[in-house]
Amino acid sequence: MTEQQPGQHMAAEIAQQPAIFSGLIERRAEIAKVAEVVQQRKPRFVLFAARGSSDHAALYAKYLTEVLLQLPAGLVSPSTTTLYGGKPDLRDVLLVSVSQSGGSPDLLEVTQAARTQGALTVAVTNTSDSPLNAAAELSVDVGAGVEHAVAATKTYSATLLALYLLFDSIRGGNGEHAANLGDLAQSTLDTSTDAVTEAVRRYRFVDRVLTTGRGFSLPTALEAALKLAETSYLGARAYSGADLLHGPVAAVDGETAVLAVTSTGKGGDALHEVLDVVHGRGADVLAVGSAADKVSAALRIPVPETAEEVAPILEILPIQNLAHGLALARGGDPDSPRGLKKVTRTR
Length: 347
Prior knowledge:
The chain is of the alpha/beta class. The protein has 14 helices and ten strands.
């Protein structure tokens, strides 16, 4: 029997993403049927319920909602339902519950309560027969397949794409900006290998990392910090580029590594000044994204240019490989980080 090598599951699941994207895009018509129901119900507000990596995907969908649909959106605090018994009036509200497993008790309770209170509920999960799917009125299957590594990779990116296809369909789009993401994902993985290897060498012994982004790229910065913390046990913190200048920049110095997610578009443009400031304070900046070559940085990992609204689906790919490489270089196993389980049950 072949001995399992550290990180082999995470590496394999990162590599599966281009094919998963292509398969999900082929199922766009299924997601469009869910979107049709949402269109008919004409929600005036959208709420998202999620935890962990799925919470970052939900934040991405919040941007999609406010920018593409021009509807107000928010992230729920599950404890207002599960601990405090809150029952707000949710008529004319769309609640989207995002969960890889669909098994978290708090998200299940929130979804059940929201449906009782009049919300149209949609579950976006990677487990089509989950309790969360059964509780929601509608569901979207992420279709990423079983994920063995504790750190979410393919389920995270596939959830982003599923959410994009859903909200693009709600606005009446045809998915054109996502059409070639399978090929672009493969190109991203192939062309970033050398830069990721150099970044692993450069940051192997770093203790403190700040991640930052603006707009659609902010969820990528948040997910990057989580991946680095859970796989390499780094002290990683994520900040919006705007918030970084409001105080945390005081802690930035020559001992600080800054991972900046910057893609072509308004969010990337807004990050230029921020990176000029942190670079000027001596921070070692790693820029990731399609606009990486346009900002002040010591090292860059370019990503193919896309419409800004789908950039996060590609941005995260080399960051996942960076987290994987750093974990191995630091003597860890990213498949099984200490103290973590694949499904975390909270209430």
